[in-house]
Amino acid sequence: MTTSGSLNRQIVLRSLVRGEPTPEHFAQVEVPVPQPAAGEMLVRNLYFSLEPAIRGWLEGKANYFAPVPIGGPIRGPTAGRIIESNVAGFRAGEWVFGLNHWEDYSIVRADTVLLEKIHTEPGVPLSHHLGALGGSGQTAYVGLHEIGQIRPGQTVVVSAAAGAVGSIAGQIARLRGCKVIGIVGSAGKARLLTQQLGFHAAVNYRETPDLAAAVTGCAPEGVDVYFDNVGGATLNAMLLTLKPQGHVIACGMISDYNRTDDPYPITNLWQVVARQLTMQGFLLFTYDSLRPAARAQLAQWVRAGQITVLEHITRGLANTPSAFCELMTGNTCGKALVEVDI
Predict the structure, then answer these.
(1) Is residue 251 part of a domain?
(2) Within a domain: 304
(3) How far is CA 337 from CA 19, 217, 227, 316, in A?
(4) What are phi and psi for residue 334, nearest 5 degrees?
């Protein structure tokens, strides 16, 4: 593949986001294809991994990463093929994953966050390496085992359970011998959990006036581990359902991502003390040493058909903003991806 005479399409931030993102917050530009210097490689991106966490980088505020500046390309995980490499251990033609940008071509370095080689195999689509086998699956695996300390026989509740991380987390907990309850926002998603993903029960929070009571109805024995992708009112309710010395895995707080200036008040925080709960947040890249084992186990389960992979794929770089906005409405199921047109 040659880049001679090519232009690099990028999706950049047109204006800071307040509230829900819309496609008008983004713009597409074309710049020259960058050339790799010493210690760098040029990667042709083929998939973008759409992440709710990206929303926090779009409003000009400091986060665990610097905010995306107006006019700057949007940061996000990508998978692609190396075109040219000046990095030891990486060769042209190999596949890599890493935190790059929404663009055709990215300059990647050895210290690029989440950088790893992708070892493709027959029957496993490249897209799986961004979701079930990639960041989403690894987040679910590390969260459950390292933070939640799950054990067979426990009761595990997962919020945003039809999403990229939640759908995998629930299936892992089931495979580990746990009773699994999913919290979702539609009857269709609830059926998906119980009929296709093997969850033992599902609660549609939009159809219950008392989420804590609904979860307790599914788990009168109490909840051992809560995998929280949502925060806000869902977290507030779940604090009333946990057993003494239960665990809260704080993975994400998507309910507040579009309302960072007015986050939902957590009024039940006293339960952390009263029930002697362990509540811990985590970011996958800080557990880098655990990722190979997580990926290997996830691959084994996927090959064996023990994990069902859900993907929501949008095609075309130009459609990335609208795909991201759709993700942030909560209407998608599984891993949201963009397949880049070449």
Answers:
(1) yes
(2) no
(3) 22, 35, 23, 10
(4) 75, -160
> Which residue has 């549609």 as its token pair?
204
What are the C-alpha distances in Å from 96 to residues 14, 130, 300, 324? 29, 10, 20, 22
Q: Which residues contact 205 (CB under 8 A, 6 or more apart)?
A: 183, 184, 185, 211, 214, 234
Note whether 158 and 238 are same-domain residues: yes
Cα dist from 299 to 132, 288, 295, 306, 331, whole Å? 8, 17, 6, 10, 27
Sign, CA dihedral 48-54-58-64, equals negative
Q: Is residue 202 part of a domain?
A: yes
Listed in order, strand segments (DSSP E) in the chain are 7-13, 26-32, 40-49, 75-85, 95-101, 105-109, 116-118, 155-159, 179-184, 201-204, 223-228, 242-250, 278-281, 311-315, 335-339
Measure the N-to-C terminal CA separation of the chain; round to a whole number of Å.
Answer: 11
In a domain, 1, yes or no: no
Provide the whole-model pTM.
0.90
Q: Are 12 and 114 in contact (CB under 8 A)?
A: no
Residue closest to 6 by CA, chosen among 72, 83, 112 = 83
The pLDDT profile of the chain, 342 residues, written as one tens digit per residue, is: 556 558 999 999 999 999 899 999 999 999 999 999 999 999 999 999 999 999 999 999 888 889 999 999 999 999 999 999 999 999 999 999 999 999 999 999 999 999 999 998 888 999 999 999 999 999 999 999 999 999 999 999 999 999 999 999 999 999 999 999 999 999 999 999 999 999 999 999 999 999 999 999 999 999 999 999 999 999 999 999 999 999 999 999 988 877 777 889 999 999 999 999 999 999 998 999 999 999 999 999 999 999 999 999 999 999 999 999 999 998 899 999 999 998
> Which structural domain, as residue segments, surrounds residue 86?
7-131+309-339
